[in-house]
Structure formats: structure tokens, C-alpha cells
């Protein structure tokens, strides 16, 4: 799994997503873009990929597309429309693009071909209020656990399997 970080200036979301699809198809990989303000770290995406791949292997996936299934797990949601809030939108967006599947060389080549972001560190630069709102994390939940916000979000990702 490779992550491409940067800031995307998205004037036309369909064109942006089409470019990602072109690169994915060209290199035989899965590519999914995320709004970095919602991602609490690399482990967040690693766990989402692991669980999405497990669901696909067990024929328990909700989405037909691997990238969308990864998005569902990363969002901790079973409804695609709800999970899309974790994706990118039009405007200037801090972005993390996940490239996964295939050989490491294919992932690296696909990541290098992604010319849709201005490189910048974005992973781990999440907005706590935005994350808490999206994942519905209350003050009471934070007070009742030993974990921090990233741990609670990773738990939401893992619990999606239980909620099926």
C-alpha cells in the first residue's frame, strides 16, 4: 500500500476521479482518494484495507468496487452515500490517495503517475472537531476510554464487521 499526500485543487470532481480511474486501470491497482482532515493516521487506512480485503475474500462485501469497500471501512459506515463524506470534494482539499493491490512496483509506478495533488504532508493533520462529528465521538465516550481519538476511530473501523 502506498499513500500519496498533498493538496488537491479540484475544480471538476468528475474529472479528478476519472484521472484516478485512468491511473488505476493503467497499472492494475486500486486507487481511492480521501479528505485528509478525516484520517487519523496511516493505521486507519491500513486497517480499512485489511478488513475490506477480508470482506471481499469472504464474499461479504457491500460494494462491488474494492476502492469503495475500502472507503466504507475507513468511514466506519455500511451506507455508501454516508461514507462518501470521507472522500474528496471540489475546492482546495488536503488529500491522501491510497494506492493498493498488485505488485509493489505497480503501486509505486501508479503513485508516481498521480499528478493530481501538490505534494505536502497531510496524513495525521486531521481536524479533531471534524473527525469527532463524522465518527459521532462524544465527550462522554472520550472520557470513558483510555484511548485517544485515533484509537476510537480505529475501533469504529474494526466494529463495522460486527455491525453487519
How much strand? 15-25%
Oligomerization:
single chain
Low-confidence stretches are none
Please state the second-level CATH architecture: 2-Layer Sandwich
Q: What's the number of extended β-strand segments?
A: 4
Query: What is the class in the CATH system?
Result: Alpha Beta
Q: Report strand order across the widest sheet.
A: 2-3-1-4
Please identify which CATH superfamily we are dealing with.
CGI121/TPRKB
N-to-C span: 26 Å
Q: Pairing-aware structural class of the strands and helices?
A: alpha+beta
Helix share bin: 40-55%
Number of domains: 1
User: What is the H-and-E element order?
Assistant: EHEHHHEHEHHH
CATH-defined topology: PF0523-like
How confident is the prediction overall: mean pLDDT? 93
Topology:
Elements: E1 2-10, H1 13-27, E2 30-35, H2 42-57, H3 66-75, H4 80-83, E3 91-100, H5 104-113, E4 118-119, H6 128-134, H7 139-144, H8 149-159
Antiparallel strand pairs: 1-3, 1-4, 2-3
Helix pairs in contact: 1-5, 2-3, 2-8
Written overview of the protein:
The protein has helices at residues 13-27, 42-57, 66-75, 80-83, 104-113, 128-134, 139-144, 149-159; strands at residues 2-10, 30-35, 91-100, 118-119. It is an alpha+beta fold. It has a single domain, classed as PF0523-like. Strands 2-3-1-4 form a four-stranded antiparallel beta sheet, with helices on both faces. Helix 2 packs parallel to helix 8. The radius of gyration is 15 Å and the shape is globular. The model has no long low-confidence stretch (mean pLDDT 93).
